[in-house]
User: What shape does this take?
Amino acid sequence: MKTFGRVHALRGANFAVNPGEVVALIGDNGAGKSCLVKCLSGVLQPDAGQILMDGQPVRIESPLSAMRMGIETVYQDLALADDLEASANLYLGREILKTGPLRLFGVLDRARMRSASTEAFADLGIELQDVRAPIVSLSGGQRQSVAVARSVVWASKVVLLDEPTAALGVVQRAHVLDVIRRVRDRGVAVVLISHNMPEVREVADRIEVLRLGERVARFRSADATLEQLVGAMTGALHQEEEQ
Amino acid sequence: MSAPSTTTGEVGTPPAPPAGTSPWVRLATANVLWILLILIGLVVAFTSIQPNFLQPFNIRSIFADQSYLIVLAIGETFVIVTAGIDLSIGGVLIFSGVIAGKVMLALYHGQSAVGATNASWPIIIIGVLAGLASGLAWGLLNGFLVAKAGVPPLIVTLGTLGMTIGGSYLLTGGTDLRGIPTRFTNLIGFGTVGGEIPYQVVIALVVAVACGLLLAYTRFGRYTYAIGSNAEAARRVGIGVDRHLLRVYALMGLLAGVAGCMNLAHYTTTTIAGHTADNLGAISAAVIGGTSLFGGRGTVAGTIIGVLIPATLASGFVIIGVNPYWQYVAVGVVLIGAVYLDQLRRRTRERN
Assistant: This one.
């Protein structure tokens, strides 16, 4: 549960996600999706309720502690350093230093970071023409791919994606969805927030619907129809028991 | 990694060169190369009009007179790369010179009309250290107010500019300190290595190499670029943005202290009234050298060329007999041109 003053932004938003599974969180504006993700990524602290990880209750005190637990977040706004190259962004805050005496001066091992980045991008099906080119010179889809890659490369447990395809074209969107599937296949739990119903049904294994801070419905995405999803989001459809 | 690309191609590279670019293509698209070509063009032009321009004496004096500004402009480059600005550097320079001079005079017992001219090396060294410490302290104050108190850097450093200049007048009673130790002025001020390279230039060179490596090759440098590029992104991955900004402003303050001691030795006095426009000189140098006022981009090499272009114009105009005041006009044109190009490049990128 999360309250802002007298507003209950989240109340009873109970849901689970398993390794190797994509769970989509959908809901109308103000349903509490982003708030829930912020609680899970350590940006906000819930006022009540529990977060369990591998069955153990955990406290996620800051984005940094979330990262240490293996939880990574891809934010709505890209949050890349535009003037730095892709590998510098991938390793931002986790730079590899040269070994030996140069380490004392904090000298970066750029060659290692570049080759490891190229490999990591290739694993995710992302091809960059030039790993040394600054992010600002990449296309929107490539930038988003780098942003997603940066998170998933380090995520050992959970990846949270908040509207990762909102600003993308059709082809670029397909690329990002492909990256999401590859991440899932590695056994990482993926939580996807999206407004885009076809996209959600395409990539998610399970869909959880939030409305006014509550989880109001749950669907296996193969079973869900668009009408059901919209109905649950707007409150027209009530789902008493989980299907 | 191959040598030509790494010094210049790292961050100053304009929109993506085509795939699989060679280091040479990368170099050709780097900003620093173009600025260097402008500088070389100026030197060739002045020399063809008046061959005396390339006389060793002239070259040496250009470098010696600009050394302190190179040191300041390098510090300013770090600050601007973080998307900040430091207007206080001229004031901090004077204040540090005053502190260094005061300490030397106070430690030397012969408080006669000759001042501390005969003071020995230990006294000089303590004085210099006091000057450096004063610069560092002002830098820490700037950094603290910018990073922790959240006051915009323009305002913070405008405030400390006033405080340092006012403080210098208060400490000296408005008259420049005289009687600076001659051992100090003869060596650091006028001395040369092997009769060829002035110590002023050697100091600037050491600062340039150390800071150039720091910015281009270390984690410190990468965080500097990252913060100027997107401070929020840096914060999200756990970089101590506030702490890093504090360090960058502290480095700037320390370098202003170094420049203060160089200035004290070079002019054998504190030159209280002589440095109020240093901030403009250092900022123009950085900007002409390709540092973006929006942060995230800039190189030490570019900044050094950015110091040398106005200096070459000034010296060249004198030698070919043009009224030297044209220098200010020419530098103004170059400065506006440099920022215009930066804006243009940003707009092209955003359109993609």
